[in-house]
Amino acid sequence: MTYHPKSDFMRVMMERGYLADCTDYQGLDDALTNGVVPGYIGFDATATSLHVGSLIQIMMLRWLQKTGHKPITLMGGGTTKVGDPSFRADERPLLTAAQIDSNIDGIQKVFAKYLDYDDSPTGALMLNNAEWLDDLNYLAFLRDIGRHFSVNRMLSFESVKSRLDREQSLSFLEFNYMILQAYDFLELNRRYGCLVQFGGSDQWGNIVNGIDLTRRVLDHSIFGLTSPLLTTSDGKKMGKSQDGAVWLNADMRSPYEFWQFWRNTTDADVGRFLKLYTELPVEECDRLGALAGSEINDAKVILANEVTTLCHGAEAAQAAQATARDVFENGGIGNDLPTLALSAEELGDGISVVQALVKSGLAKSGKEAKRLIAEHGARIDDAPLTDAGLMLDAHALASPVKLSAGKKRHALVKLAS
Fold first, then answer.
1. Domain presence at residue 2
2. 270 and 393 belong to one structural domain
3. Is the pTM of this model over 0.85?
4. Out of 77, 140, 238, 333, which could bridge 130 as a Cys pair, Cβ 3.0 to 4.6 Å?
């Protein structure tokens, strides 16, 4: 449908490509023009960091605050104990309470980079749904909340239906997830006046459940807005790279590796990613995305710098660009490359170059490292690496050694000081 928004937030969502669907365009747009609207996204604590796949939702909350509204980041301390079954082929492994708390500590670190948490009308809130889920009385919950859910309707949701159609087990525990997420929205509306839930388009059914439940229990009108599930132009799921997930926390993915991920964006994705992951004006994003030949590489550097500045700070972005320039243009080592520092005990009489490739993250296994060498895809100090039996001893590591896998992935191996 064609809709012409009045509110700044809805205009940004539509212009920059964040919007997949909305439960009530007009109603939400009216609310956004009539006062401060609190909106939330839930993040289950299944790992110690979020990855790039969650960045579109974080940017939506950032734009919500920048356009004069109140973002709520809801940590799933309660729902993580159940596990979201949406579009999964199997049950998530159950985490202990200590693991969940540790993961939440790690996840929370990234939000302060994107949102301002303060006591102002638009100050972000950091909440944990364990606050209302942990102490629920089961019978009271069934009577007061469960009666509003039709099992027939729950079975019709694509996230459940696809699992059952493949005859894959769906536990009663997981089946409860959509009820708990709906209850989150109800509680956030009741406690904090939250009017809108954001999420990926795979969360549409869960969001609609929350809206319906809140209408039935509180007689309040609330809204849902979903973003597209992003894939790169070559069909890969956003947030994954050749060497695994692109984490947002610096201790799980170095700022240089993060910067390099964006620098390696496919030409066709540059304009779209500039709109979604930076705050450059839309016209500038379109101009940069339309560049061709070697000029598109300049646009990729701008993309990498802008995204890395938001996530890790301007200093980290500048250091990453300087390292990339040194490594790629000048054939140097670069101060910011991922580094494998070996103690004298770890090194012993030496480490094989195959082990070094694995330990530095350039190969996932010894078999992959040997194949890389055999196929002439590995280099040592920018020279072809042809001997899989090469040993790196204290003499060889008297100065740092640069290992490369292909043209774009590099790491240093050195003795720990």
1. no
2. no
3. no
4. 77
